Amino acid sequence: RDYAGDWSSDVCSSDLGLPRLKNNQSINPPEKSVDLGLKEKSVVITGGGSNIGRALVLGFAAEGARITIGDIDETQAGKVAELARAAGAADVQVVRTDVTQLDQAKALMDAAVSRYGAIDALVNNVGWDQLMFFMQTTPDFWEKIIRINFHGVLNCTHAALEKMIPAGSGSIVSISSDASRQGEAKEAVYGGMKAAVNSFMKTIAKENGRYGIRCNCVCPGVTIPETEEEVGKGSMWAKPLFTPDQLEKVAASLPLKKVGRPRDIANSVVFLSSPLAAGHVTGQVLSVSGGYSMIG
């Protein structure tokens, strides 16, 4: 299958008030100076082998977390696990997972609890799309989009809540898309499913706040891998989705005048997963898109 552990054509970045760089360059994160309370916490990340997922794994690794990567591409996920150990992760395990299958989602959560004793944070990161006008698509395509982008979130969220509710704490962050907030040509079904994820996560936040569980979404804009090593052979990013000229035009259209990089999304997700930095934040949909979407 060509979708697991993958991302669609969205995601961007944020401005930290630092000197502006040239288009398509990204600002390196500052040296760590704040304890986010994630050291040795158990974090499950789906689709952690490529692009944004890879950056997520490395972001949590820098915090000293214990990480369970669920990905259908074990080889690519294994490479990221090695990088995560070198980056400071307390421990990392890889579990081959097709998130569209509930039994495999449950097995992923079981593996995290078996090895690390709990699930402190889940990041629903698997996603997939193929840019086409709606009238060019077929019912089979619709079903694939729905299974990967919505059923996958349902499966993993349900399986994680079975562990988090008895524990009385936890964080769930789902990667959505700015296409969910204002619509985007050639992403009709995908944008619809991501809008469903937003609504679903708000409801889950309301239902489970009483158990100390926080639930949020991050909506990327256009986010581009920086190197070929960041994507697996089966990733939709294995072939360029944009020409250099197209990327320049995208960057020029954004208020921050640059496209996003995977670590821009990872920084936001790590923040929302932190019980110390974001312990009073739940039910929110955060756009990390360089200003592409500014809906109140």
Outline the structure in words:
With 296 residues, the chain is α/β, with parallel strands linked by helices. It is built from eight helices and seven strands, in the order E-H-E-H-E-H-E-H-E-H-H-E-H-H-E. The protein has a seven-stranded parallel beta sheet with strand order 3-2-1-4-5-6-7, sandwiched between helices. The longest helix is centred in the middle third of the chain and has 29 residues, at 139-167. It is globular.
Overall 3D geometry?
Answer: globular
Count the helices. How many?
Answer: 8
The pLDDT mean sits at 88
Main sheet, how many strands, which sense, barrel?
Answer: 7 strands, parallel
Bin the strand percentage: 5-15%
End-to-end C-alpha gap = 38 Å
Q: Unreliable stretches, pLDDT < 50, 5 or more residues?
A: 1-21
Query: Helix share of residues?
Result: 25-40%
Task: Write the H/E string, N to C.
Answer: EHEHEHEHEHHEHHE
Biggest sheet strand order reads: 3-2-1-4-5-6-7
Helix and strand content put the structural class at alpha/beta
Number of strands: 7
- From the alpha carbons, calculate the radius of gyration and give it in angstroms: 17 Å
Briefly summarize what is shown.
The protein is α/β, with parallel strands linked by helices and 296 residues long. 40% of the residues lie in helices and 13% in strands. The longest helix is centred in the middle third of the chain and has 29 residues, at 139-167.
